[in-house]
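Re: [ENG-882] Designed sequences occasionally contain unexpected residues at chain ends

Forwarding the minimal case from QA. Structure tokens:
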């Protein structure tokens, strides 16, 4: 029976929707004995929530991966503290996964880079970075003085050479693919590049919703599978 169209009824519907979203984020994340699927951790960007990566998570689940969302607050903490928290989550949820991959958006990529540099999981797999400020962001330079009090991690995304965005090393054995948005006004194309990355692709996208594009989903699945954004050429007969 449908809930009555009253304030209480609408509140009940919203509560059920929230429970459904919570279940969706938890679905497949908790390790089960003998589950040999590869695990993908999704790490959202500044000022966002795991909901922003929900469509991508569903696509990866359909591709056969177990998916876990790492959520955090942009209003507190540092890149280092968030990287430590991500490492603890990975250790807790890896289970029997043969490999643990990561897909990040914006600030989420710098958190992943911190974890890889300081507490790399034993079964770390591939990393796909969406709109990453790997060289810092000129937009962060402009906005840090105005919103840094509310979102402290923005200071660590500036273009100064000693910020985590610029200074964190990339372990040589980690395969990284980068997807940048040609219309991104927050992270310029040149700011996405990272020494040691395996592949780099550009899509006609803005910054905030790059993770929802079907072409981006295809590129991510291709890189997680093959370590490159384009499939390997067929061997001539």
């Amino acid at each position: 029976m449908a809930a009555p169209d009253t304030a209480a009824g609408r509140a009940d519907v919203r509560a059920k929707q929230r429970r459904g979203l919570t279940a969706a984020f938890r679905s497949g994340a908790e390790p089960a004995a003998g589950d040999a699927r590869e695990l993908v951790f999704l790490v959202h960007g500044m000022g966002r929530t795991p909901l922003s990566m929900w469509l991508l998570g569903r696509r990866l689940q359909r591709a056969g991966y177990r998916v876990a969302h790492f959520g955090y607050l942009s209003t507190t903490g540092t890149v280092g503290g968030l990287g430590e928290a991500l490492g603890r989550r990975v250790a807790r949820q890896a289970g029997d996964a043969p490999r643990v991959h990561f897909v990040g958006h914006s600030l989420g990529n710098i958190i992943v880079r911190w974890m890889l540099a300081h507490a790399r999981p034993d079964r770390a797999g591939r990393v796909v970075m969406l709109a990453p400020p790997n060289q810092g962001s000129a937009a962060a330079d402009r906005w840090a003085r105005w919103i840094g009090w509310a979102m402290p991690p923005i200071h660590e995304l500036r273009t100064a050479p000693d910020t985590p965005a610029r200074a964190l090393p990339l372990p040589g054995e980690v395969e990284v693919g980068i997807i940048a948005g040609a219309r991104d006004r927050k992270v310029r194309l040149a700011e996405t590049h990272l020494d040691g990355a395996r592949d780099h692709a550009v899509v006609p996208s803005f910054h905030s919703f790059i993770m929802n594009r079907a072409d981006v989903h295809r590129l991510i699945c291709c890189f997680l599978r093959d370590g490159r954004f384009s499939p390997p050429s067929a061997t001539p007969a």
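QA comment: On inspection the terminal residues look reasonable. The first helix runs from residue 7 to 26. Proposing we downgrade this to a documentation issue.
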